[in-house]
Request: fold
Amino acid sequence: HYPLRRQRQMCIRDRSYIDEVKSVKISLKEVNSDLICFGVYKDKSMTPLGNEIDENLKQTIDSAIEVGDIKGKNGEVNFFYVNDHRYALIGLGEKENIDSNSVRLATGSAIRAAISKKTKTVTLDCFCSGLDSCQAMGEGAVLGSYQFLDYKTNNKNHFEIKKVEVLGSNKEQLDKGVAIGRAICFARDLGNHPGNTATPTFLAKAAEEISSVEEMTLKVYDRDEFTEMGMGGVAGVAQGTDEPPKFIVVEYNNAGNDKPKVIVGKGLTFDSGGISIKGASKMDEMKYDMCGSIVVLGVLHALSILKPKINVVGIIPSTENLNGSKAYKPGDILTAYNGKTIEVLNTDAEGRLILADGLSYASKHYDPEYILDFATLTGAMVVTLGHIATGVMGTDDSLMNKVKDSSEKTGEKVWELPLWPEFCKQIKSNIADVKNMGSAGQAGSIAAGAFLKEFVGESIPWVHFDIAGTAWGSKPTSIDPKGSATGVGIRLVLDMLEN
Ligand code: BES
Ligand code: ZN
Ligand code: ZN
Reply:
């Protein structure tokens, strides 16, 4: 037997790089922060604070506009040092096109500007006057402050802002945005930890920390238990690793007997491909193969703070996919939790095998209003939609429309792929009920979706999200730092749950 890998012990939740975000109603004269930010549109008009600035500052800004330094592009930052104050004018973009997305990004830019100047206190003018999107400001502020420096031994770059105040904002919306932002940062941390820290045990510990509130209960099944229960998918994939696998179930109950909404997330903490081993190039990125599970944990984190009157169940099958001597092999046949048999043609198509048990469990033990699943499921997804949009597939038009509405509102782009019968036939096996691959080189993401459909109970509305392209690797922005898990999906799900 191998010794257990060393686990770093730490409190996983409630870390942040921004202490307090407050809604305040004061005039510019009463502000004494280290940095005062207000916004400018492309037409050079400004957010409300622009009407309060004195002649000195106004002249300086006018000169900067004249020489062309201020264009009002979203994300642009110009500093001014006038009357013993430090100001930053933040570009917001076209006034007519301003939406919660541009507000979120601009707020992120303001916070990144504050971090670049190491200012402890920041005042932000409300960037969304009239738009009703102070939530986006709360999200943008917290996401803009995100840094992941756990493995730098001298944390000299780590900087914490003590206080951000947002002038004239809607407190309720702002607070909600802050809670969502913090939930996403928590999820990103989980995603960014390497495989030797973020193990299935680590995910279970994170779930335990979140579920300490009264409305939540946690159940974690270990290898012996879920094998005994008949979860042949997770058990099969987990055969190749000595790292203890977990099947994690969190129930959030705050609406009596209402049907729960169930979210299932792929928690594959490292994917070597197994016996059908991957190439070495970029294999390190397979530490992110648990990014479906962080959607579930991030959403639950937000629920534990926001406490909406709904019922939600989060399910995370979690294991490594490695090449130990007991590893499952191409040709093996596994029996999933719903009794269907699966011919394994490629051990690297493991995500769908563990999700098969997750979806079967959701369908058997609950009477879900709907099921959503999140998974970094196929490399083909990156080919199809790049790092721009998440591929979605499902069986229920009305649920799919809700997904698209929430996508529109939250700026987390999705694009639907069809689960036509022609595709669904491609995963039928000669020897078992189904096989874990479609036709070689064809519609790989859809084949995976078609496979998952076999494990969702008849008549349960369901949508599958393939986040292989969007969970990490997208172009960095003010709210999405370079080389980090994005936490994509959390904002979208929270919006759906609310409606
Ligand atoms: N985790 C991978 C999918 C993946 C690959 C996500 C690259 C993001 C970037 C998944 O387990 C996998 O390996 N899928 C195979 C399926 C194939 C063997 C049918 C793939 O996409 O190659
Ligand atoms: Zn794989
Ligand atoms: Zn995988």
Q: What stands out?
A: Residues 245 and 295 are 19 Å apart (CA to CA).
